Structures are given as C-alpha cells and as structure tokens.
Amino acid sequence: MTATIDRKADLYPTRVTTGSSLIAREEPVVWGKAAEGPLSEAELSAYDERGYLQARRLVTPAEVEEFRAELRRLSDDPAVRADERTIVERSSQEVRSIFEVHKVSEVFARVARDPRVVGRARQILGSDVYLHQTRVNFKPGFGGADFYWHSDFETWHAEDGMPGMRAVSISIALTDNHSFNGPLMIMPGSHRSYVSCAGETPEDNYKSSLVAQNAGTPPPDVLDGLATRHGIDVLEGSAGDATLFDCNCMHGSNGNITPYPRSNVFLVFNSVENTCVEPYAAAAPRPTYIGARDFTPVR
Amino acid sequence: MTATIDRKADLYPTRVTTGSSLIAREEPVVWGKAAEGPLSEAELSAYDERGYLQARRLVTPAEVEEFRAELRRLSDDPAVRADERTIVERSSQEVRSIFEVHKVSEVFARVARDPRVVGRARQILGSDVYLHQTRVNFKPGFGGADFYWHSDFETWHAEDGMPGMRAVSISIALTDNHSFNGPLMIMPGSHRSYVSCAGETPEDNYKSSLVAQNAGTPPPDVLDGLATRHGIDVLEGSAGDATLFDCNCMHGSNGNITPYPRSNVFLVFNSVENTCVEPYAAAAPRPTYIGARDFTPVR
Q1: Does A254 touch chain B if contact means CB atoms closer than 8 Å?
Q2: How far apart are the C-alpha atoms of A204 and B270, rounded to whole Å?
Q3: Which residues in chain A touch residue B187, judged by CB atoms under 8 angstroms apart?
Q4: What's the CA gap between A242 and A234, in Å, rounded?
Q5: Which residues in chain B touch residue A148, judged by CB atoms under 8 angstroms apart?
Q6: Domain residues of chain B, as ranges?
Q7: Cβ of A255 and B260 within 8 Å?
Q8: CB contact under 8 A, B180 and A252
Q9: Fold type of domain B31-271
Q10: Which tens digit of pLDDT belongs to each residue from A232-269?
C-alpha cells in the first residue's frame, strides 16, 4: 500500500456548525496482505467489504474463565474501584468499565500483546501498532442501557487527534452474545462513509459521553439513509469469539432487559503511522487512559 | 373440556406484602379442538406447549397498507389525539397507543370481528369470546423505550378482576419485526407458572403503568429462574404476520435505537365464561377502555 495519511490536513471535519454531512473515506480499510497471516484472503476481503470480521473461538474456554475471574477480582478490588480509570454506575454501584486495563492487570496485559490478537491488528493495518485504548466492559441485564449509533473514529479524530482511519478495534466476548441481550450492531459497509456531525464539543465531554453519546451523534435522517443502504448486522456469538471492526463502522447496541449480562475485553490498535496529533475538534485531548499519547509499538 | 373457573376464589393472589412466589397454573391453555378449526392439531399443541403461536401472513399486504394508512389517519386526527384513550408521548408529541380502537375506527372494528382473528380466539378458548382490550401501538425507532418483563394476566387479574387464565392476545404486525428493533420476546412455557408479585397497587396505577410497569413486576431472581428454565424466544416476522399468545406468558421487549419503528394492532379476547368481576388487588377497576366491562360476544 502506498497510501499515506496527511497529519496536518483535516480530511474529516466534524462538530461543525453547518449541519451534518457525509464525506467519502480516503484511506484503505485493509493495509496488509494475506501472505503475512494470520488472516486469509477471504477474511481480509470480508473485512474490507463489511468493515468487520468475527473470529470464532479466538481464545479458549479456559481463557474465558480466567478472564472472567480476573474481571471479578478487579471489580471487587477497592483500589481498582477508586481509580479514576474505573467507571462505577452510581445507582447500582456496579463496575461498568475499567480503562487502560492492560496497565491495571497483568492478565489483560498478556491479552493485549497476544499474537492471536496483535497479529490480526498488524496485518489489517499493515504496520506496527500501538494501543490507543483498552478496557473491559460489563453491561448488566435487567435493564442495561443502550449505546446510540456512532463511529468511534469520529470521536477519536475530534477529541484525541487521530489523523486518519487506520485503527482497528478487537472485542473479545467474555459472555455469549444473543440477539436479545444488547449485542453489538454494525451497519456493514458504513465504514466507507464518514459522518461529519453538527455541534460543538463540550468541555470534558468524555465524562458524560462514556455514559451517553451526545456530541458526535449522527442525526436521524443520516442514520436512516445509512441503514437503508447498508442494513444492520446483529453480531451474535459465543464467549471466546472476537469481533474485529474498523474504526469508522457505524455501530451501537440496544438496551438489555434480559437476565443475561454482557462483558468483553476491548482493545483498540492504531497504526504507528497514524499517531495522534492535537484534537481536531476539542480544546484539549482526553486523558491518556482514554486516548493514549504513548505510541510505543506493541511487541 | 370440563374445567371451570371459580370466580369467587382467588387462585392467583398478587400485589402481596409477603414477597414474590410462583403458583402453578390451574386452567388448561387450549380449551377447543382441532376439528373446530381453523388451527390444526399441530398448531394447537405448539400453542399449548410454548404459550404462543405465530400465524404467518394472517392478513394480506394490501390489508397491511390499509391498516397503516388508517393508523396514520387516526394519529393525525385532532379529535383522536385529544381523546383520553389516545396515549401521546409528551416529549415527541407522537401517538404511542390508541385504546378501544375497535370503537374509534371502523377499519379496526372490522379486524376485531374478522373470522381469521376471532375464529382462532374462539378455538383456543373453546367458547364465545368478547374483547377485553384493543389498541394500536406505535413504537418509534431512534431510542424507543423497552417494556419490562410481565404477564398480562397478572395485571388483568389484579386490576381488572379477570378470574382465571382463559384469554388470548392477538397482535397483528403492521411493520417487520427484526431481532434489532425491539420485537416481542416470550419465555416459552412460562405461561404455566403464575408469578405472584410483591407490592401494593398504587391508585390509578394504569396512568403510569402504560408507560413503565412497576407494580406487578417480577423480581430479578424469579426472572432469572424462568429464563434459565424456559429460555427466551425472539419473535421476528413480517408485516401481516400475527402472534397469538396466552394471557400468562412472561414477555417483554427491548428498546430500539434502529431507524425502524414498530406498529401493531393488538386485540385481547377473553372467554365469555371468564368475564371480569371486582379487581382482585386494586381499589377500583381500570377505565373500561383499558379493561372492558361489556361482555357482549363478538359475532
């Protein structure tokens, strides 16, 4: 691939006052080749076309058990609960997310440098990669909240200064994902259209946007158009499956009234050729535990 | 069938102060015979076992169009909007439900006496039937609310004085039901267990319970047990399909962030041998547009 990303130009303006619009993606989706492995030609081309790929049984059932136990241990640890990187829900006092979890836990540090994981990220991005964000998520049953449609890249570009689209998220399921317990939904193919969103970024937007997305939310008519064009895929799967998805996929999840909670390990790899600069549409970058400014490649 | 319902005894106490409990169902689920038609032996036995049945293409695409047009007409009619039987959402000013719709609209009056509909109700209940409740529902996209787990019979027994379990709901879909736009979820087989719920019925409970269920809500441990025993069926289908379900099915629906709204015509038929008496757990019956006190059989 010869494509490069111009870090100075803002190809993807957003949080604008002129109203929302669609901008065609400039960068490739897949930067590496099948020969480099571990992903096959067919897998790379499916990822290229749909913007995501499910890797069944990426980790073993024993590993799932180990990760779940570690998640429980972290959630019960008073020091972890008190850490600013841990999001505790006020009403239930339950831990919802732990950010920068690869620094909080040796178990998850190992996952973040596991060749099954990093190898896939390197191949898709065609370069060395570093961790832009990591977290574990716990989404409860009996009324767990929805997460409205958004593109992660829109936020990372606006608020973290990620120049171009050369990042991949890898989410490893620690629970089964059924159609009915609020699974990830992706509009397949939407990763080729960037939605420039209306509205200024509020100060310290991350404090509220981790709970509910406001700035950076596409308007109904745009979502309607994307859904009509692309449809909606519901990503069901088993604990141990992983989902790899492009940074610009339009995605979200419904709430969950069932008794079945959902949890996952979530790792964002960015190309070392796409390291963050100053935010494109925010006064200051978000804290480094949400958007890393240390670009050391994962080895 | 020789089973009868004792109208005086309260077989199904609820809204109790002693905590929630499970009570085994006394009545049959299917009261009629296959020979009476239109439902086959296999359909009746599936309904008996799972507590519900999907009738594909119960109405034609042309009828769906007619019903949708009528729903739009009603929603735009200032007199209908001002009617107490119409539930208008405060924030969006959209019509969510129109109760007693068979009296509001000649189109839906015809549906309520259509042999394809009433014939099925009569056969399942093994007697003449009357309309306990009718409504049209509109559940919007882009964040339509969830509806928490409940048994309709629990409410009809507590607040309307329905003595026993001899009622069937028939919901005709006016839009496609996907797994992702908040479809009906039923725990198959749950109709054989009655969940006696804790908590007194507040005065005029119907005013808030149409928006969010509070009294009559089973606690998490009971729902967990029911879901483990029965599982959860997600009722996908096309516009024109109907779902017939027993009055005591544990059911609910997730919220809906997709652009696809859902609407349906909802008709509750009760056996004329099971007409309502005084409420079993409320100071006064609900208004007659929510729980009928005119028991004239549908002809």
Answers
A1: yes
A2: 56
A3: none
A4: 14
A5: 143, 257
A6: 31-271
A7: no
A8: no
A9: Jelly Rolls (2.60.120)
A10: 999 999 999 999 999 999 999 999 999 999 999 999 99
